[in-house]
Write a structure and sequence with these properties.
By secondary structure, this protein is of the alpha+beta class. It is built from 8 helices and 18 strands. Bound molecules: pyridoxal-5'-phosphate (PLP).
Length: about 350
């Protein structure tokens, strides 16, 4: 580590949660990382402190105009007790792309990675070691300057909080299928918007559609493009993959509507390495349903850090409902899930140099 941070340890360590009932994002560790930004000093005073409430002015601009970004990554415990991060450099690159889009300051790669390592190291004994569990890491930045005007804040706060997690989807493990509702009214991202940025604003826009999908008995929505409601974009807060006649298809990043998932990038790299037929291309929802009718739709799955790979068993689009792969995980999703988890947890050789030890 090239940065030295002040560390203040808690006087009141919490009891660790039951490893069988971790859930996702409900338990938090004993510490968090906090760092300030001001225009004159840049990022400064980074420190590890006890996890606890914040004191902010009610006028802090994050509360009014939503200048906020976040990241999501995990720390994994290996069989021999080491702690690994997975491609943290990608999270920093995406942070800076997000920050650029919402007029927040850039952050140096080694500073952000050292901040994450520092707090994970202090709360190292919170990292669960059961299969399927990990320590979810949530870095985020908020605009903290107290003013009610629409312009970028001068001051910011950067945080890292940590949550020991089990499976992302309640009541199921990662290999269970989900039911997905194809949203044809609401829009997540339009060309020229903020789809490529990891910001809370993109999530609040999606709540209504998610609620609607849930009310029809579906787990999540499949988003279509904002203009024509014709092309597939993402599944909920994950990237979407379709296997048609052996071709593995995901939406391209070129028009700025798709969040550049690190799991997405990992999947593409692994598939290309296997010599699979992979396409980053526009895909019409009509083509997906037609392929299903003709028996050529092999698999659909979502990808993201939280659940890694989440196979889709059913898709509903208007009044059309299709079953995918007999509601079972398919060979592409299954093999990717196993390979990615094995790399992340140090069970197989990391031949791409993706893991970083804490
Ligand atoms: C975070 C996120 C993803 C997945 O990204 P990963 O880096 O793979 O976790 C996909 N879509 C959206 C909208 C996201 O916010």
């Amino acid at each position: 580590m090239t940065h030295d941070f002040k560390i203040t340890r808690t006087q009141n360590p919490k009891a660790k949660p039951d490893i069988d009932k971790l859930g996702f994002g409900v338990h938090f560790t004993d510490h968090m990382f906090v760092m300030k930004y001001t225009p004159d000093k840049g990022w400064h005073d980074g420190e590890v402190v006890p996890f606890g409430p914040l004191c902010l002015s009610p006028a802090a601009s994050v509360f009014h105009y939503g200048q906020e970004m976040f990241e999501g990554m995990k720390a994994y415990r290996t069989a021999d007790g080491r702690v690994l991060l997975f491609r943290p450099d990608m999270n920093v690159k995406r942070t800076n792309a997000t920050n650029e889009r919402i007029c927040m300051p850039q952050i140096e790669e080694s500073l952000m990675i050292d901040a994450i390592k520092a707090v994970v190291d202090v709360d190292r004994d919170w990292i669960p070691d059961r299969k399927g569990t990990s320590l979810y890491i949530r870095p985020f930045i908020i605009a903290s300057e107290p003013f009610l005007g629409v312009r970028p804040s001068n001051d910011y706060l950067f945080f890292v909080i940590l949550s020991p997690v089990g499976s992302y989807y309640a009541n199921s493990d990662q290999t269970h299928t989900t039911k997905i509702y194809v949203e044809d009214v609401y829009t997540r991202a339009a060309v020229g918007g903020t789809g490529m940025a990891k910001i809370g604003a993109n999530y609040v826009m999606g709540l209504k559609a998610q609620e609607k999908a849930n009310s029809f008995g579906y787990d999540q929505v499949l988003w279509l493009d904002g203009k024509e409601k014709k092309y597939v974009q993402e599944i909920g807060t994950s990237n979407a993959f379709f296997v048609i006649d052996g071709e593995i298809i995901t939406a391209p990043l070129t028009d700025g509507t798709i969040l550049p998932g690190i799991t997405r990038d990992t999947i593409l790299a692994l598939l290309r390495d296997r010599g699979a037929h992979v396409s980053e291309r526009d895909l019409e929802i009509e083509e997906v349903f037609r392929a299903s009718d003709e028996g050529r739709l092999n698999e659909v799955f979502a990808s993201g850090t939280a659940a890694v790979i989440s196979p889709v068993g059913e898709l509903r689009w208007k009044d059309r409902v299709i079953q995918i792969n007999n509601d079972q995980i398919g060979p592409v999703a299954d093999s990717l899930y196993k390979e990615i988890v094995a790399i992340q947890t140090g069970a197989i050789e990391d031949r791409f140099g993706w893991t970083v030890e804490v």
